Amino acid sequence: MLPPAETSPAPKPAARRENRLRALDGLRLIAALMVACYHYGGRDGEVTQAWGTSPKHQFPALHQLFAYGCLGVQVFFVISGFVICMSGWGRPLRSFFASRASRLLPAYWAAIIIVTAVFALPAVAYKAVAPSDALLNLTMLQQPLGVDRVLGVCWTLWAEVRFYALFALCIVLPGANRRRVILFCAGWTLAAAVAQGVNEPLLNMVLMPEYAPYFIGGVGLYLVHRDRRDAYAWGIVGVSWLIGQHYAVDRLWHAPNPQFFSDRSALGIILVVTFGYVAVAAIALGWLNWANWRWLTVAGALTYPFYLVHEHLGWVAIEAYHRTLHLPSYATFLATVVTMLLLAWLLNRFVENQLTPRLRSALAKPRPQPALR
Questions:
Q1: 36 with 340: CB under 8 angstroms?
Q2: Burial group, residue 328, by CB count within 10 angstroms (0-12, 13-18, 19+)
Q3: What are the pLDDT digits (tens) for 100-136?
């Protein structure tokens, strides 16, 4: 998942500084709501316990549409490629690391603590992870270490962290320029294809063949943003879309089977993936510059904490609203989304706004050199 990030491009030579791309904030919120629709009404699993019956019965007209909401993650990754290239361009490594860590960690730590505490309550039916595992979750390394996850959505953060590391080593550290970014995109695309072909676990973990096309496509779209006539940038975007739609269909489509909850079509999956690329392309080309409302910035700020807490705490809210207060299904759905957005606002105001600047300042401040004796 994409955490909040600067959505104003770095200054270009001999060009005025561009306005904040608020449409990216709006698109980020749309992607988060897509994922929420999937977790609340587009799948089985623990949410069935929260509703008391399968979401198929709760949303007979919409559950098939909600099943496509999982593709909000792919949309997030395209946005992430765009934003990380934009925010890392011209930035030194220390500043890049400080920016990423300070934006990811405060809300993440708070979400780990809150979900662990709520699941430990006797009245909550969901099992909390072991205390030792919960502590390890604070490092974001629980997935490669094979430890139970406190947050079901944190697997996307593990993908984001690996992308940040690759981008930092290959682009930020030597210094971003067009030629280096193009070689990075081409090299990663080829290396990911090789990793998929040889099926080597280490290469798959590092190069992420399944998710690389979305990040790479977003990076290519930032090059388009800098120069819409850049044929290499458009080539990167086109190849990434072709590979990305393949992986999405391969992983998320299956032949119609009554034993499966979802009934996604290959065409539907391709259309949603295409929406992600086209929406970011429209922003890159300036077609959505008219969407410059201040509330979009607020929406973008709420997206990351909402994404972190919405799934697991959403189960608790759904059970309370639907099975305890007996609200109808659609009212429960809306009430749960509003509740999670309110919690996200509280996390943004009292955790992110307080800790993010302090953590960034502490990490970005150069250490004084010891005096020579």
A1: yes
A2: exposed
A3: 999 999 999 999 999 999 999 998 888 889 999 999 9
Residue 233 to residue 230: CA distance in whole angstroms? 5
For the chain, the 3-state helix, strand and coil shares in percent, each to the nearest 5, are 70, 0, 30
Question: What are the tokens at 41?
Answer: 């009404």
Place of tokens 């067009």: 178
Alpha-carbon gap, residue 79 to 28, rounded angstroms: 7
Rounded to the nearest angstrom, the gap between the alpha carbon of residue 93 and the centroid of all alpha carbons in its chain is 22
Helices (H), 59-146: 63-66, 72-88, 93-119, 131-137
For residue 24, the SS3 value is helix
Degrees to nearest 5, angle at CA 166 with 239 and 209:
45
Residue 29's nearest CA partner among 8, 7, 59 is: 7
Measured distance CA(137)–CA(112) in Å, rounded: 7
The reported pTM is 0.92
Q: In whole angstroms, what is the distance from residue 311 CA to residue 50 CA?
A: 11
